[in-house]
C-alpha cells in the first residue's frame, strides 16, 4: 500500500532543494568541476635534451676537428677523377639492376610454373647464388679464362663452328657486370615472386574466364598490382646494390671506392677521402630514394584515389600561405565611416 506525500513535503515553485543551492558544495566526482592537469612527459623531455646535446656535439666536432680536413675534401669531392669514378659506379648499378631484375622476373615465374623441371632449376639457381658471397662470385668471373680459355658456338656435344678467346669477350668490366647481375637476379626473383603471390588469385580466374591470354594476364593484370608489393623491397635492394658495387675494388675497376683508395694511398689523407666517398654515396642513395617515392606513388593510384601531397607540394602550399598572409598584412586599412555620414 503506497502513501501520497503530504503537502508539507512538496517544495514550492522556484525553491531549491537542500544541497542544490548556489552555496551548496559540489559533488567530488562531478566532471564539470574536476581540474584537468595535462600529462607531463618528463622522460620524453630528458630524451629530447640528450639527443640535442649529442647532435650538437657531433656537429661541433665536424666543424672544429682538424682531422676532417675540409679543405682537402672540397678539393677532391668534385675532381675529375672522382666524378669519373661516380659515373662507373652508376653504370655498374644500372646494368646490374636492369639485367638482374629481368633475369629475376624470369626465375620468379619459373618458380611459379607448374613444371617441376623449371621449378627445380629456378630454386637451385636462387639457392646457389644467395649462398655464395658476392666477392667470391666476382673473383670467380674475373678468373673465368682460367676455366674456359675459349668460348665457342656450335652444336651441343658436337663440333664448334666459331670460337673466341674468353679474355677478349669478357673483360674486367664485363666480368663485374656478370657477377653483379647473377647475384642480383637471385634476390630479385624472390622479390618479384613475393609480389606476384600477393595478388588475389581470383584476378587470374576472372581474366581466364574472359578469355584473356596468359601472357596478357601477367603483363596487364598481375604485374601492375604486384608492383605495389615489389617496389619497396626492390628499391631497398637497388640501394644496397649501389653500395655493394664497392666490392668490385678487388677487380681493380675504377669505381668510387677504388679511386678513393688509390688517392689516399698516394697522399695519406685517409679521413677526408673517405668522407668524399661517403658524401657521394649519401647523395646517390638520396636520389634513388626520391625516385622510389614517386614510383611507389604512381603505382598506388589504384588503391589510394586521393594520395597525400608530396613534400614538394607541401612546400609550395606553405609558400603560398606565407605569400597570402604577407599580402593581407600589406593591404591598406580602410577607415570605417561614422554612422549617418553620407559623404
What layout of secondary structure does this protein have?
Elements: H1 42-64, H2 70-76, H3 80-111, H4 116-131, H5 134-142, H6 144-147, E1 150-154, E2 160-165, H7 166-169, H8 172-197, H9 201-209, H10 214-244, H11 256-267, H12 270-299, H13 311-330
Antiparallel strand pairs: 1-2
Helix pairs in contact: 2-12, 3-4, 3-8, 3-11, 4-8, 5-8, 8-10, 9-10, 10-12, 11-12
Describe this structure in words.
The chain is extended and about 110 Å long. With 343 residues, it is mainly alpha-helical. Helix 3 (80-111) crosses helix 8 (172-197), helix 4 packs across helix 8 and helix 8 crosses helix 10. Strands 1-2 form a two-stranded antiparallel ribbon. The longest helix is centred in the N-terminal third of the chain and has 32 residues, at 80-111. It is built from 13 helices and two strands. The chain starts with 41 loop residues before the first helix and ends in a 13-residue tail after the last helix.
Short note summarizing the structure:
This protein is mainly α.
Quote the beta fraction: under 5%
Q: Return the average pLDDT rounded to an integer.
A: 82
Number of strands: 2
Main sheet: strand order? 1-2
Whole-angstrom Rg: 35 Å
Count up the helices. Answer: 13
Helical/strand content category: mainly alpha
Contiguous low-pLDDT stretches (5 residues minimum) are: none
Largest sheet: 2 strands, antiparallel
> Could you spell the SSE succession in H and E letters?
HHHHHHEEHHHHHHH
Shape: extended
Helix content: 55-70%
Gap from first CA to last CA? 84 Å
Amino acid at each position: 500500500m503506497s502513501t501520497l506525500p503530504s503537502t508539507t513535503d512538496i517544495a514550492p515553485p522556484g525553491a531549491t532543494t537542500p544541497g542544490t543551492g548556489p552555496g551548496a558544495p559540489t559533488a567530488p566526482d562531478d566532471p564539470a568541476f574536476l581540474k584537468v592537469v595535462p600529462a607531463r612527459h618528463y622522460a620524453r623531455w630528458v630524451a629530447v635534451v640528450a639527443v640535442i646535446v649529442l647532435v650538437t656535439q657531433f656537429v661541433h666536432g665536424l666543424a672544429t676537428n682538424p682531422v676532417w680536413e675540409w679543405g682537402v675534401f672540397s678539393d677532391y669531392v668534385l675532381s675529375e677523377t672522382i666524378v669519373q669514378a661516380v659515373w662507373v659506379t652508376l653504370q655498374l648499378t644500372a646494368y646490374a639492376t636492369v639485367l638482374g631484375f629481368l633475369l629475376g622476373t624470369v626465375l620468379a615465374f619459373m618458380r611459379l610454373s607448374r613444371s617441376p623441371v623449371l621449378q627445380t632449376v629456378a630454386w637451385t639457381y636462387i639457392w646457389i647464388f644467395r649462398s655464395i658471397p658476392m666477392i667470391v662470385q666476382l673473383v670467380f668471373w674475373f678468373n673465368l679464362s682460367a676455366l674456359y680459355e675459349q668460348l665457342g658456338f656450335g652444336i651441343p656435344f658436337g663440333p664448334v663452328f666459331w670460337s673466341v678467346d674468353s679474355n677478349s669477350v669478357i673483360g674486367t668490366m664485363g666480368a663485374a657486370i656478370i657477377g653483379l647481375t647473377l647475384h642480383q637476379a637471385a634476390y630479385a626473383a624472390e622479390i618479384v615472386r613475393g609480389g606476384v603471390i600477393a595478388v588475389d588469385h581470383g584476378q587470374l580466374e576472372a581474366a581466364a574466364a574472359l578469355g584473356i591470354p596468359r601472357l596478357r594476364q601477367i603483363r596487364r593484370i598481375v604485374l601492375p598490382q604486384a608492383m605495389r608489393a615489389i617496389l619497396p623491397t626492390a628499391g631497398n635492394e637497388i640501394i644496397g646494390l649501389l653500395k655493394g658495387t664497392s666490392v668490385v675494388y678487388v677487380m681493380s675497376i675504377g669505381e668510387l671506392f677504388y679511386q678513393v683508395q688509390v688517392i689516399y694511398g698516394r697522399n695519406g689523407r685517409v679521413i677526408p677521402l673517405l668522407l668524399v666517398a661517403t658524401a657521394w654515396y649519401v647523395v646517390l642513395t638520396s636520389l634513388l630514394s626520391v625516385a622510389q617515392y614517386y614510383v611507389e606513388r604512381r603505382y598506388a593510384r589504384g588503391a589510394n584515389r586521393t594520395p597525400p601531397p608530396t613534400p614538394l607540394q607541401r612546400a609550395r602550399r606553405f609558400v603560398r600561405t606565407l605569400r597570402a598572409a604577407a599580402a593581407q598584412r600589406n593591404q591598406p586599412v580602410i577607415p570605417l565611416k561614422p554612422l549617418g555620414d553620407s559623404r
